[in-house]
Amino acid sequence: MVHVSKQDICREIYARKGGDIKIKKEKTFVKNLARIFDAALKISNEKGFAAMSMRDLSRASGLSMGALYAYFSGKDELLEMLQRTGRTITIRMLTEQTAGEIDPRVKLRTAVLTHLFLSEAMQPWFYFFYMEAKNMNEEGREKAKAAELATEKVLADIIREGRDLGLFNDRNALMTAAVIKAMLQDWYLKRWKYAGRNITVDQYGRFLIDFIEAFCLRPDQKPPSPGEGGESGPE
Amino acid sequence: MVHVSKQDICREIYARKGGDIKIKKEKTFVKNLARIFDAALKISNEKGFAAMSMRDLSRASGLSMGALYAYFSGKDELLEMLQRTGRTITIRMLTEQTAGEIDPRVKLRTAVLTHLFLSEAMQPWFYFFYMEAKNMNEEGREKAKAAELATEKVLADIIREGRDLGLFNDRNALMTAAVIKAMLQDWYLKRWKYAGRNITVDQYGRFLIDFIEAFCLRPDQKPPSPGEGGESGPE
DNA sequence: GTCTATATACGGATAGAC
DNA sequence: GTCTATCCGTATATAGAC
Predict the structure, then answer these.
(1) Which residue on chain A is closest to B45 by alpha carbon?
(2) What pLDDT was estimated at residue A230?
(3) What's the rounded Cα separation, in Å, for the pair B188 and B124?
(4) Can you tell me whether residue B70 is helix, strand or coil?
(5) How far apart are alpha carbons B173 and A171 in whole angstroms?
(6) Burial classification of residue B21, based on how many CB atoms lie within 10 Å of its CB (0-12 exposed, 13-18 middle, 19 or more buried)
(7) Is the pLDDT of residue A229 over 50?
(8) Protein B178 CA to nucleic acid D11 C1', in Å?
(9) Is A71 strand, coil or helix?
(10) B182 phi and psi, to 5 degrees?
(11) Which member of A2, A57, A96, A108 has the greatest number of CB atoms within 10 A?
(12) Cβ-based contacts of A215 with chain B (< 8 Å)
């Protein structure tokens, strides 16, 4: 359902880079950049991007120090690439997936689950994006904030729509969206916790939807259930 | 209601340190350590602890490089001190505040608001604690996780209690506690967002309680409202 | 107790061979 | 395209004067 290929991502970066790229063959570029990204995300998510040295990255990616600098101009650019890539994919996927639906009740579910499954498929990216935003320059931080607000707005708009149609309660839509975001983010920020309890994405998703709908939906407006959104039982 | 003094915190550290402390007079120790903490939190929360150099800290705290090393043995110990201090205070405050109450409905509100107001009063500490946990050694990270689980357990126990008394719905208490934590944390992690919208702590608290109670409380069990927990209106 | 000056190492980045 | 060897700045930490 939500699938993103590492190769596709890197190919796109290759295409976008234009003339100032040092590696000629797309194939080697894609292969190595994917290794670099993997290694960088792994190390950064363990001890932080700032604490990751280029030597660490060289060792983990299997490329020499010198070679690394053929793929990015410096540590700053690497950070920028990682952030931009994560941002781009998220926004694209979210808007794509929620485009078709009309019923706000279903749309809300779809948006929540899309975000959730996407963050599951790309956990290292999402985690990195969240934790390393503050290490960026002013421009990068602003873009990160804008991305947060954009995904929040997707949720808020759905909620407003549902409210206007009389399906949802009349509550602060933006605040509701904000806390939904917080709950969605918790899934990829605290994987250690949920993994330790053997909670699956699906369980988490079902629980979230129950929780959200208890607040948003008017009592008599349970939506036509495509996923049979049953109650989440006691532990 | 929730008040924590910088001086008290530092005095306690002074008392705990025992013999291997280099500064003799409590007064200078407390005064300077408070300055160090302030500066360290400020810089770290802007660009990350790893990116903060001792020179940065020296400049911002007004103490020379050499003097700093009279207060901690190195950057690692400073990190450890900051984390431990934050942890200790949080757990103590939370258990203290929720101890008296009996009615689980009121207790839940109290726990949520206590956590929220505490995190407001000590925002830099909480933010730092969350964002810099992964820069610590194994032991430090384990303690951070334990602290997360401990505060979560406080919430979960209240919810279980309410369920057993027939006041709350029969839902997964631990999962509920987990998402409540996520929402509470959002307040101090994304202050920029809420500040930009002129949302006050009280508004956020009221909203959270409405949200949580919509899911947790059985329909006919609105609690005796001490704070008159009215609906949070539309934006 | 606090300062300045400095030892020492480590990190990012580049040069130039292959 | 990739490697090794190296430059050079900056970081942590300390020595020793005041």
Answers:
(1) A134
(2) 47
(3) 8
(4) coil
(5) 25
(6) middle
(7) no
(8) 40
(9) coil
(10) -60, -40
(11) A108
(12) 210-211, 214-215
